[in-house]
């Protein structure tokens, strides 16, 4: 890993956290066609590239005694865990804001500090895992790293707008900095710690489940007025790219 080629994707993802939400043409209702398209790209990558890769990695998990004794699909169980964790986080934020609005009668209630830090801490772990995966991608073909980086860059853009909507100035002042530090820390950990293949596969599964939930929760609410055609077009075009390689 002497080329350190993954430093460029890390810097690009950090750049998105710093400046992504300043792209005002992506904000507002109805939902930007670019954000919907970005969601389609992210989901297409998970289903057509990441999950098949996890299927190949399942053999590493099955070598563990405890895995053989319980379930034969721990990889996909971890994807379910990732999806469930981020669904629970989203519900906790929405419920906290609704309760705050009821108490203060504020049309735009602020997220309680405890919920904000729980939310950001969870996404920090998520970012750190993605940073580590970026480092590990250096071992494979360059196009594999590029495909993953593009999908995660667009996914980060979606997450940034969602987090800013939930937390407003708290995200701008603190949240994005924490996420960037977590991303870089996760990537840098790759220089120090070499995780077993089994752990890497499970980490990728968790991230895959998180990507699916974090994209769909932004697309499905009726008040978003999302552009389905843009989501479908993004997924279709990226699927063609993935299948052609």
Automatic annotation (TrEMBL):
Q: What sections of the protein cross the membrane?
A: 6-25, 32-51, 71-90, 111-133, 145-162, 174-193, 199-216, 228-244
May I ask which residue range the UniProt record assigns to the signal sequence? none
From what superkingdom does this record's organism come?
Bacteria
Transit peptide found in the keyword field = no
For this UniProt record, the keywords arranged alphabetically read as follows:
Membrane, Transmembrane, Transmembrane helix
Q: What's the protein name?
A: ZIP Zinc transporter
């Amino acid at each position: 890993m002497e080329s350190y080629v993954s430093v460029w994707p890390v810097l690009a993802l950090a750049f998105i956290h710093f400046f992504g939400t300043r792209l005002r043409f992506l904000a507002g209702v109805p939902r930007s066609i670019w954000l919907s398209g970005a969601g389609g790209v992210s989901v297409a990558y998970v289903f057509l590239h990441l999950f098949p890769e996890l299927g190949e990695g399942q053999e590493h998990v099955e070598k563990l005694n405890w895995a053989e004794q319980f379930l034969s699909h721990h990889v996909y169980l971890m994807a379910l865990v990732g999806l469930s964790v981020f669904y629970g986080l989203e519900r906790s934020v929405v419920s906290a804001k609704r309760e705050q609005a009821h108490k203060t009668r504020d049309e735009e209630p602020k997220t309680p500090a405890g919920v904000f830090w729980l939310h950001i801490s969870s996404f920090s772990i998520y970012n750190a895992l993605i940073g580590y995966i970026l480092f590990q991608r250096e071992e494979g073909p360059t196009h594999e790293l590029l495909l993953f980086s593009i999908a995660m860059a667009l996914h980060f853009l979606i997450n940034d707008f969602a987090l800013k909507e939930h937390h407003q100035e708290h995200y701008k002042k603190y949240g994005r900095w924490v996420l960037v530090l977590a991303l870089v820390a996760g990537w840098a950990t790759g220089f120090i710690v070499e995780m077993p293949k089994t752990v890497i596969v499970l980490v990728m599964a968790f991230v895959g489940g998180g990507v699916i939930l974090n994209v769909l929760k932004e697309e499905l609410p009726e008040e978003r007025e999302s552009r389905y055609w843009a989501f479908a077009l993004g997924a279709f075009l990226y699927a063609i790219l993935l299948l052609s390689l």
